[in-house]
Amino acid sequence: MATSEPVSAPPAVKTSLDPQKPAQQQQIDPYNVGGEVDETGAIKAIDYDRLIQDFGVQPLTPSHLTRFEKVTGKPAHRLMRRKLFFSHRDFDKILDAYEEHGTFMLYTGRGPSSGSMHLGHTVPFLFTKELQEIFDVPLVIMLTDDEKYLYTRNKNDGHQKVGAAPEDFLDFAHENIKDILALGFDMKKTFVYTDYEFMGGHFYRNTSEFESLVTMNQASGAFGFNGSTNIGLIAYGAKQCVAAFPSSYPELFGLKDYRAPEYAAEGKRRHKSLASIPTLIPCAIDQEPYFRILRDRCERMTDPHPKTSLILSKFLTALQGPGGKMSASDPNSAIFMSDTPKQIKDKINKHAFSGGRESLEEHRKLGGNPDVDVAFTYLSYFLEDDDELEGLAEGYRKGEILTGEMKKRCIIELQKFVQDFQERRKGVSDETMRAYMTPRKLEFAGNPNPTRPRQAAVAAAGTNGGVVAGGADGGEAGEEGKGVREDGRGTKGERKAAKLAEKKALKMAERPKEEA
Ligand code: TRP
Question: Which residues form the pocket of ligand 1, taking CB atoms under 6 Å from any ligand atom?
Answer without folding.
Answer: 1-4, 30, 108-111, 142, 144, 147, 240, 243, 281, 283, 287
